[in-house]
Amino acid sequence: MASIEFHRVSKRYSDSPATVPGLDLQIRDGEFMVLVGPSGCGKSTILRMIAGLETVTAGDLFIGGHRVNDLPPKDRDIAMVFQNYALYPHMTVFENMAFGLRVRNFPKLGIERRVREAAETLGLSGLLQRKPGQLSGGQSQRVALGRAMVRDPQVFLFDEPLSNLDAELRVQMRGVIHRLHRQLGTTSVYVTHDQVEAMTLGARIAILNQGALMQVGTPLELYNDPDNTFVAGFMGSPPMNLVEVINDGTQLSCDLLTLPRPQLQGLARKLLLGLRPEKLLYAASAPANWPRLRGQIELVESLGAEMLVHLRAGSAQMVARLPGLRAFTLGDALELAFDPTAIYLFDAESQQRIRADSARAGVGQC
Q1: What residues contact residue 128 under an 8 Å CB cut-off, 6+ apart?
Q2: Which residues, including other chains, have CB under 8 Å from residue 121's CB and lie 6 or more apart?
Q3: At what angle do helices 137-149 and 167-184 cross, to 10 degrees?
């Protein structure tokens, strides 16, 4: 096992803007770190720099306390699991899992023991003589995991390993990967664009946007305490509602709602108000002193026990996650309420969170 440290690491291709501009990030020994962000944000490039498949343009990369900028991939003691499995089609499952050990001249009995132990752990014992063409997607991904697992590396790297699987298999494989990490305790770095995957797997999550690190924290820290609108809008499904409100000096208002102005100095005229869909309740079931909002129903998405109700008033829109027990007519007016401590405020220009003591601010978490 080993820690991984990025000290002002950047990656640039020819004369184009830096794909990764000056990354500072520490991944602890034995930690499961998830790198998450939209396509093109640099997360796979970061993973490939750890593996040695991409060179570091500037800065220093350390694995286990040793600078590895110039260390070739074969000497980094890292195992990588790819999105497309990368199995040899002419080899059996056993041969695929054993291949990395054979090229390192492991003894035959040691290879047999490691492969069979990994196959037992992954539920592959009955498939060892099959070839990849005879396997399902989930079985193929477990073989790829087993091939990495038998190496007993100091770091596991996962590059969107579940993106080719259907929804049910993704849930199953998340459970497999989570159990493996608990069992092995190996430092793991996992890349995904799926925030649900990130929140269910990561001990900590690093959120990236255009190569820049937006915030690092546990899933609950990122969900409850976002630093900026990007993190607020990225974590959570559906994402946090962000609506522009006008500060007239006495109150904050938009077409959906009006609130007392928080007792903070230097607030700009235009702010962004954040409110998570699951924090909205039917007005009739909320305390009388909670703020209300009112809009017309534009869309209802039924999820069975729940539904997502889209509201609009003028240019302002919000989504509410509500119990799926009522029938609505599009265009009807709906009044909802929310706990004032559930509100977040962001600067409309910088997109950064406006923070203050909740009692002094008067609008909870802003």
Answers
A1: 92, 93, 94, 115, 116, 119
A2: 146, 149, 180, 183
A3: 20
Tokens at 221, concatenated? 């820290």
pLDDT of 73: 93
Q: What is the pLDDT of residues 192-233, one digit of tens each?
A: 998 889 999 999 999 999 889 999 999 999 999 999 999 999
Domains by residue range for the chain, with CATH = 4-224 (3.40.50.300), 238-361 (2.40.50.140)
Residues 61/68, Cβ–Cβ less than 8 Å = yes
Q: How does pLDDT run across 47-106, given as a tens digit for each residue?
A: 999 999 999 999 999 999 999 999 999 899 999 998 888 899 999 999 999 998 998 888
Q: Which two tokens stand for residue 70?
A: 């110039």
List, edge to edge, every strand of the sheet that includes 316-323. Answer: 280-282, 333-338, 292-302, 306-313, 316-323
pLDDT tens digits, 151-174:
889 999 999 988 888 888 888 889
DSSP 26-76: EE-TT-EEEEE-STTSSHHHHHHHHHTSS--SEEEEEETTEE-TT--GGGS
Q: What b/e readout covers 314-350, taking b as 16+ CB neighbours within 10 angstroms? A: eebbbbbbbebeeeeeeeeebebbbebebbbbbbbee
